[in-house]
Design a protein that fits this description.
With about 400 residues, the protein is of the alpha/beta class. It has two domains: about 120 residues, Aspartate Aminotransferase, domain 1, CATH 3.90.1150; about 230 residues, Type I PLP-dependent aspartate aminotransferase-like (Major domain) (Aspartate Aminotransferase, domain 2, 3-Layer(aba) Sandwich). About 40% of the residues lie in helices and about 15% in strands. The chain is built from 14 helices and 15 strands. A seven-stranded mixed β-sheet has the order 2-10-9-8-7-3-4, with helices on both faces. Strand 11 and strand 12 form a beta hairpin. Helix 1 packs antiparallel against helix 10 and helix 3 crosses helix 9. The relative contact order is 0.17.
Length: about 400
């Protein structure tokens, strides 16, 4: 298959006020979910065209934005959302925090299925609520839902919301329709609102298919709020642009009041047009990106198996993040009183995420971002190999 975009080109991002690359000259950051690729050409062109107009005053969300989202999810994912269901937001995390504040009350509990995106905990705790953890079951190879624990947690009268990651970060699980239906049924039965973060939905490799939570059945549609964004798939996090989808009219009004009172429903001048351009014209670029990321993720699995057998990549098809089981090194780390992530950064410059930040169920794991040119990924894996060798020899 012919290639039209150069994902092998190495970008130099130091000195650009990049959060990811705000690190030492000898360090290689592979932690935060931020790709080291140029975004789609259509996005850059839309931004440059708007920038050329010169004035950057207060901005409204154009109808084009609603249409682009609705069309993308209808054609790409088979979900016929209506344009009026969509509300602009400055980001998925501001949306989640606003939803927790508006749709739950202080001291209530919000359920999370761990290990899960660490900022979920911030959105809960910083707003005076308590996380109710429902750990996934890990058998050494795969993860599954502990349905007995899930139902028991949902039955707690203090639990009023579930923050769902679909697809799941950091493991990369692509939840199937049957699982989502069961989650929806249990939550609806217990008056637990499902807030589904689907920001990684367009980054699914290996032919698996993402299913929007709200598309499964009427129960899921009515008892849910979905957060979406082009930011992960098209690397637009710095433009602060996301969408909140709610089909139920009463619930949608509450959500919009929450977003507006928290002042996170107004776009910067590039936010809406960049997302619209991505969904209108970025399909070919994204398809090629997903194939490239699939190759990178396969390379990580092969490299670990051949060169670092004490580690095992157990990540699944979604996201560009690799979830690495490093439990075999836990005793050595405990003996030296170090975290593996901290040891690697100090001794090799490789900066990975410590799995424990995703909840106790993530202890003993590392999260590695594979969304980078192949040469950069190989550098990271060689540093990882060197670090493990040093730890074991120390």
């Amino acid at each position: 298959m012919a290639k039209h975009f150069d994902f092998d080109r190495i970008l130099y991002r130091r000195g650009t006020d990049s959060l990811k690359w705000d690190c030492g000259e000898n360090e290689l950051p592979m932690w935060v979910a931020d790709m080291d690729f140029d975004t789609a050409p259509a996005v850059r062109e839309a931004i440059l065209e708007r920038a050329a107009k010169g004035a950057f005053g207060y901005t409204v969300v154009p109808e084009r934005w609603n249409k682009a989202y609705a069309s993308w999810w209808r054609n790409r994912h088979g979900f016929a959302m209506e344009e009026e269901w969509l509300t602009f937001c400055t980001g998925v995390i501001p949306a989640l925090s606003a939803l927790v504040r508006k749709l739950t009350t202080p001291a209530e509990k919000v359920m999370v299925m761990t290990p899960v995106y660490n900022i979920f905990f911030n959105c809960i705790i910083n707003n005076g609520r308590f996380p109710a953890e429902c750990p996934l079951v890990y058998d050494g190879e795969n993860y599954s839902v502990d349905w007995e624990a899930f139902e028991r947690t949902a039955e707690d009268p203090q639990v009023t919301m579930l923050l769902l990651c679909n697809p799941q970060n950091p493991i990369g699980i692509v939840w199937d329709r049957e699982t989502l239906a069961r989650i929806g049924e249990i939550c609806s039965k217990n008056a637990v609102l499902v807030v589904s973060d689907e920001i990684h939905c367009d980054l699914v490799t290996g032919g698996e298919k993402y299913t929007p939570f709200a598309s499964v059945n009427e129960t899921n549609l009515k008892n849910s709020v979905t957060t979406l964004s082009a930011s992960k798939a098209f690397n637009l996090a710095g433009l602060q642009s996301a969408a909140v989808v709610v089909s139920d009219k009463v619930l949608r009004r509450k959500v919009r009041r929450g977003l507006n009172t928290d002042e996170c429903a107004e776009p910067n001048v590039f936010a809406a047009i960049a997302a619209a351009a991505a969904f209108e014209e970025g399909g070919e670029w994204l398809d090629e990106l997903v194939r490239y990321i699939g190759g990178n993720k396969a390379f990580v699995k092969e490299y670990l198996a051949e060169n670092i057998p004490t580690l095992k990549d157990v990540s699944r098809a979604a996201t560009y993040l690799c979830w690495i089981d490093a439990k075999a090194l836990q005793d050595k780390c405990d003996e030296k009183q170090v975290s593996l992530a901290g040891y690697l950064r100090k001794n090799t410059g490789l900066w990975l995420s410590d799995g424990s930040s995703y909840g106790p169920a993530g202890s003993g794991f590392l999260r590695m971002n594979a969304a980078c040119p192949g040469a950069v990924l190989e550098d990271g894996l060689k540093r990882l190999e060197k670090g493990v060798e040093m730890l074991l020899a120390d």
